[in-house]
Design brief:
The protein has 129 residues and is mainly alpha-helical. The chain has 2 domains: 1-51, no CATH class; 54-128, AhpD-like (Up-down Bundle), CATH 1.20.1290.10. Helices cover 80% and strands 0% of the residues.
């Protein structure tokens, strides 16, 4: 069962984050973080993100809101980039961060929005190159 969830997790992870991102993460694995990487592949990607209960668009919005609300800003740019694959629009992201402002605090939402703007600008610049 776990092998199947790992395989599904890698499939979903690649579809959401893109092959280049996953390939870099896989290449950077060491003996120290191998168990952790397996855990997130099976649990986050092979279980939660693989669930058909809600769409990847909705999961993107939830993930971004939760990252911002809990102050885990490091992964926001990665998940903003993922919106290109999940279908979450800039307006969806703004709506998620507005919820964060009301329910978790304006400073966290403000910082998340700043990161989103920077990341979208980088994505647009990369498209134009």
């Amino acid at each position: 069962m776990e092998d199947a969830r790992y395989a599904k997790g890698m499939e979903v992870r690649r579809s959401v984050l893109g092959d280049a991102h996953v390939d870099r993460a896989e290449a950077a694995k060491t003996d120290l973080d191998l168990p952790f990487q397996d855990l997130i592949t099976v649990s986050a990607w092979g279980t939660v993100w693989a669930s058909e209960g809600i769409t990847h668009r909705e999961r993107s919005m939830l993930t971004l809101a939760l990252l911002a609300a809990t102050g885990n800003f490091e992964e926001i740019p990665m998940h903003i980039r993922a919106t290109a694959r999940t279908g979450a629009s800039k307006q969806d992201v703004l709506e998620a961060f507005q919820h964060v402002a009301i329910y978790a605090g304006v400073p966290r939402a403000n910082h998340a929005l700043k990161l989103a703007k920077q990341t979208y600008a980088e994505m647009e610049e990369a498209e134009n190159d």
